[in-house]
Write a structure and sequence with these properties.
This protein has 235 residues and is an alpha+beta fold. The chain contains seven helices and eight strands, in the order βββββαββαβααααα.
Length: 235
């Protein structure tokens, strides 16, 4: 996503691919390791901050916002072997069971949190569960219960509401998939001033996204609105 100091521009990148790690979640932008060639629809091993994961390529030469630096979900290492694909499918069942148990147990404990995603990497004996919460959560009992359930080391990681929308995916009021779950690789600040400059309705329901915050497209279009107001130079 472009900030207000640089022009917003979407360009396809040959070194970026969009991959999905779950049939129920939107794709994430990943970088290609030098020399790795990909095929849309095929499965590849990706090195992420949570460990190695197997994902399926949805799109190659992904268009992303330039020139701001990207924050990719991981680096594509190699094409996944059949054994790695089978193992990833088994671990996906473990992750789904862990996420379901986490949601049910958090509800039983009356914890003010919303579990969002669960990941079990190929190369680590851990399960990483992300959750959204508006306040500090004491999840020590939940952590112990999750450890006994999954028999793995458990990491509970709090994320913001915009990251929750990015992970969950959805459709914006424009009728298209959310910007954050398609071509955006980072979040920048969006201000009410941008809506005022574009002479948009300041009704919160009209300028807020699925996350409840100001829509990211307000920043995308801010520079175009500024350019339209400037008088063109005479030739």
């Amino acid at each position: 996503m472009s900030c207000s100091e640089c022009p917003a521009e979407v360009r396809p990148r040959a070194d970026l691919v969009r991959m999905t790690f779950s049939a129920n979640l939107p794709g994430q932008v990943c970088a290609l390791k030098a020399g790795v060639k990909v095929e849309v629809g095929a499965s590849y091993v990706v090195a992420s901050s949570d460990g190695e994961r197997v994902g399926r390529v949805l799109e190659h030469e992904v268009p992303v916002m330039r020139p701001c630096a990207e924050r990719v979900a991981g680096s594509v290492l190699r094409r996944a072997a059949p054994g790695e694909v089978s193992r990833a499918e088994e671990l996906a069942l473990v992750a789904r069971d862990g996420l379901r148990f986490c949601r049910d147990r958090a509800r039983e404990l009356n914890l003010p949190m919303r579990p969002v995603t669960a990941t079990v990497p190929l190369d680590r004996d851990t399960i990483v569960i992300t959750f959204a919460a508006e306040e500090r959560v004491d999840f020590r009992e939940l952590l112990r219960d999750l450890g006994r359930r999954t028999r793995r080391r458990v990491e509970l990681r709090q994320i913001g509401v915009r990251d929750q929308a990015k992970a969950s995916g959805g459709w914006g009021p424009c009728g298209r998939m959310l910007c954050c779950s398609t071509f955006m690789t980072r979040f920048n600040s969006v201000t009410i001033r941008m809506a005022k400059a574009q002479k948009l309705s300041l009704n919160p329901t009209r300028i807020s996204g699925m996350c409840g915050r100001l829509m990211c497209c307000l920043a995308h279009e801010a520079n175009e609105a500024d350019a339209a107001r400037k008088p063109s130079k005479a030739r």
